[in-house]
């Protein structure tokens, strides 16, 4: 309840903002894109972790609206970087369950692409396995319609849920993001290493891209590269950064 009233104030006081975390090609090191991540800094509470406040926003029924703000803000930011002469970036945005279930998500994304001038294939929508499994028929229709717009669909936190492999073939999935809990153990825990290896092999055979999330060490990076993981994201490269800092990072890199 305390969090709820603070969050209402947060919206009015514009305390929510986005950070951006780069993703690179594991082999070449080439920059591929950024993931937009929602942040909240409150004068009294300090930095509140997204794992704490996003579920509350979702329960309050505010995530569709905030999710739309996230999409619009991130698309405008990436567009601005492009207009400022930086190389075009792919933009990944996390969708919430309610946002995905909104009846008008497809029209909304279509309109967003037209209004911001972002090329559809440069936008990647991240969902969780749970979101896809929940209402398979309507989810399938929504995913197909989103894919028809040309945007990419990725499965976030892959390897942590109750994975049902058939949906990887049934739905238009472009990318799997291997959860950081698995990446963490990759050089020290045989089970984690084998699960990650199996995910990469599965994705290859289905022609789905793989991004490893939460890569923190050179050793993890080397293991992932050796296993054939195409893309990596994590503190080893950069933590999620506020827009201005991220722009400096991007400039230094290009
Ligand atoms: O950035 P961090 O790892 O702390 O994020 C924690 C969780 O919050 C992740 O699972 C991430 O997907 C989620 N998250 C971050 N930003 C957004 C957002 O804009 N919308 C939704 N729905 N989830 C987000
Ligand atoms: O669930 P999702 O993949 O959207 O969450 C990404 C979250 O992981 C972000 O909140 C981000 O802050 C966090 N994150 C990004 N890179 C790393 C990393 O290298 N290590 C750890 N522990 N967390 C990371
Ligand atoms: Mn994500
Ligand atoms: Na997520």
From TrEMBL:
**Protein name listed in UniProt:** GGDEF domain-containing protein
Taking every annotated instance into account, which residue ranges of this chain make up the domain EAL?
1-254
Full-protein interval shown: 489 to 742 of 759
Q: Which domain of life is it from?
A: Bacteria
């Amino acid at each position: 309840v305390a969090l709820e009233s603070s969050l209402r104030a947060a919206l009015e006081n514009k305390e929510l903002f986005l950070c951006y975390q780069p993703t690179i090609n594991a082999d070449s090191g080439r920059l591929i894109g950024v993931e937009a991540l929602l942040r909240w800094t409150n004068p009294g509470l300090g930095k509140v972790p997204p794992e704490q406040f996003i579920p509350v926003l979702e329960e309050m029924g505010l995530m569709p609206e905030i999710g739309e703000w996230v999409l619009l803000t991130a698309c405008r930011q990436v567009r601005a970087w492009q207009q400022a002469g930086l190389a075009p970036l792919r933009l990944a945005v996390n969708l919430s369950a309610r946002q995905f279930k909104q009846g008008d998500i497809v029209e909304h994304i279509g309109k967003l692409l037209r209004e911001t001038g972002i090329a559809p294939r440069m936008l990647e929508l991240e969902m969780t396995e749970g979101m896809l499994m929940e209402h398979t028929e309507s989810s399938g229709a929504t995913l197909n319609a989103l894919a028809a717009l040309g945007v990419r669909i990725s499965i976030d936190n892959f390897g942590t849920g109750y994975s049902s492999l058939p949906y990887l073939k049934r739905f238009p999935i472009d990318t799997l993001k291997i959860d950081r809990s698995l990446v963490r153990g990759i050089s020290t825990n045989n089970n984690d290493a084998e699960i990650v290896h199996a995910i990469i092999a599965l994705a290859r055979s289905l022609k789905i891209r793989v991004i490893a999330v939460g890569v923190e060490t050179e050793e993890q990076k080397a293991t992932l590269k050796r296993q054939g993981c195409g893309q990596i994201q994590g503190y080893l490269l950069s933590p999620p950064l506020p827009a201005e800092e991220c722009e400096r990072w991007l400039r230094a890199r290009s």
